[in-house]
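agent: user wants the structure for Small-conductance mechanosensitive channel from Shewanella chilikensis. delegating to structure tool.
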Amino acid sequence: MKNTGLELELAQLQNVYDLITEFLVKYSFQLLGALIIFLLGLWLAAKVANTVGRQLEKHNVDVTLATFVTHLVRILIIIMIAIVALGKLGISVTPMVAAIGAASLGAGLAIQGMLSNYAAGVTIIVTRPFIVGNTITVKGTTGLVKDIRLGLTILTNEEGEQISIPNKHIIGEILHNSFANKLVETHFNIDYKADPQQAIAIAQAVLGSHPSVDANSPSQVGINSFNSTGIDIGVRYWVPTASYFQDKYQINLQIWQGLQQAGIQIPCPARDIRITERQED
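agent: tool returned. relaying tokens verbatim.
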């Protein structure tokens, strides 16, 4: 019984081996030809896509749009080459296209969220509410646009964190685009006995001399409010998003040093505490 079972398994393996050998002998040239066509197609797709990318860059086309067109050209060429390679194997593409269409209809509901991200990505690329290098704020998240893809937009902040936002959460939402810079808003108190114009001049001098402060977006310094401890001076200016906190801390230090050199005191809340002794009867 054991020998019979072993012989049966060996016979089955021999049949499989014969089928594979017959297939390779019969279709080896077709397989080799299809493989060569596909590999050449991949090389051609990369070559053409790179050429298109260089031409778009040469004509100063937006980086986001150029990247999208380059990827689209590469995908279309690969699809065309795949059809040719399948034809070399004698496989008809028409039934496959029909099957893919039928499957896509059923899968459309399952991947509705993904498709909405892709549709939003195309909208972003075509309408260009922002481009790579801009600083955007959407749904409370702020960062420098590093990459725009069909499905998502990638932001980065000063800490080096990478933030991925699905594109469907960008389209239709309130979007703040400050381009390459970000607004810094800060304030400090000075004593009521101090000259506010002198304090304002010190802050303006610091902002005017700092290399990172954007000269195209005028800085603003003035009296913000009056409170119980002193005069509140407000300061507003723009710096590159990539060095936001670094520049902010440097400017705060320079303003404080300028106030100290001018003898302008920053008041602190003070409380007088009186202790009365209880008189004994």
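agent: one observation worth passing along. Residues 2-110 form a domain with the Helix Hairpins fold (CATH 1.10.287.1260).
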